[in-house]
Design goal:
This protein has 300 residues and is α/β, with parallel strands linked by helices. It has eight helices and eleven strands. Helix 2 packs antiparallel against helix 6. The radius of gyration is 19 Å and the shape is globular.
Length: 300
């Protein structure tokens, strides 16, 4: 089909099919004062128009790699992790826990990982992972860094590939283990039971119910058994779980969404042993995106 591109069809979760792709719309570009301050500090570009030009150039390249709605609408620039209630707890883990590791899964260009590093979580202990390595390379372009200048780990991989992330039962005992040089990682499997905090913002809703459970189990196997270890995120939500038509994915797009009750029950009793974690989940109305569920799972 002339003028068409490969595009995620959210009506069937993670299935790809050929559909027409909306053109880029630079009028959608907008930064909040906090975003502007962050990107100016990180890029060294202080002029608003120069910063906009730089971001638009990177955004255009990212949209050619994968024409996701979040790229087109500039949602990928959000400082979403820092807006969650558990963010300060995550930063505290980085300060207080030796060799604490933060994983930003499905990170796109890794904005949340960079923000956490800027706020004090040791960059050498942060992993930003996405299935598209091109996004990880564009992260360097966006932030004007190189692998030599930025010590964080940018790790491409598919969460459904057991060679990259095999499902392992959650650990319920804290056992000492030698530190792993994250720069040497080829997969997440060496980190089973060793990650202190996992950010999964805008990730789960890309998949159907069965695959959301698969991802939850895979991430649970990575989480440290130490009390206070955290998995958190934000995604499309619903009052009652099921398929929802949401503007977050573009016009007339359907996604499977959990309710706060079904999401809490999934983590506390299905993924983890009942009573071994504290789950908080609430629905919030987010401008343009619609109803989202903000959540955290903390080991007790």
């Amino acid at each position: 089909m002339e003028g068409a591109a490969i595009h995620i069809d959210f009506t069937v979760g993670d299935t790809f099919q050929t559909t027409s792709t909306p053109k880029e719309d630079t009028s959608l570009y907008s930064l909040s004062p906090k975003q502007a301050e962050f990107f100016k500090a990180q890029t060294g570009i202080n002029d608003d128009e120069d910063l906009k030009k730089h971001i638009l150039e990177v955004q255009a390249k990212a949209y050619k790699v994968a024409p996701y709605p979040c790229i087109r609408a500039f949602f990928f620039l959000g400082l979403c992790l820092s807006e969650l209630s558990v963010y300060e707890q995550i930063l505290e883990l980085g300060r207080q826990r030796p060799d604490a590791v933060l994983l930003d899964i499905g990170c796109c260009l890794g904005i949340d990982a960079r923000k956490a590093a800027a706020d004090g979580f040791p960059a050498k202990n942060i992993i930003a992972s996405d299935v598209l390595n091109e996004f990880l390379q564009l992260s360097h372009e966006l932030f004007k860094t190189t692998p030599a200048s930025y010590p964080g780990c940018l790790l491409p991989g598919d969460v459904f590939d057991p060679e990259f992330l095999a499902i392992a039962a959650p650990s319920y005992e804290v056992s000492p283990a030698p530190a792993i040089a994250l720069s040497s990682l080829k997969s997440l499997n060496p980190l089973h039971g060793r990650i202190s905090a996992i950010n999964a913002i805008a990730f789960f809703h890309l998949f159907n119910e069965e695959k959301q459970l698969h991802i939850a189990r895979a991430l649970a196997g990575l989480l440290s058994a130490q009390p206070g270890s955290i998995i958190c995120g934000q995604q499309v939500g619903a009052i009652e779980k099921g398929m929802v038509n949401t503007s977050a994915a573009g016009p007339n797009r359907w996604m499977f969404a959990h309710s706060p009750q079904s999401w809490s029950s999934l983590w506390d009793g299905i993924v983890f042993e009942k009573g071994s974690v504290k789950v908080e989940a609430e629905l919030v109305e987010v401008a343009i995106r619609g109803i989202m569920i903000k959540w955290s799972v903390v080991r007790l």
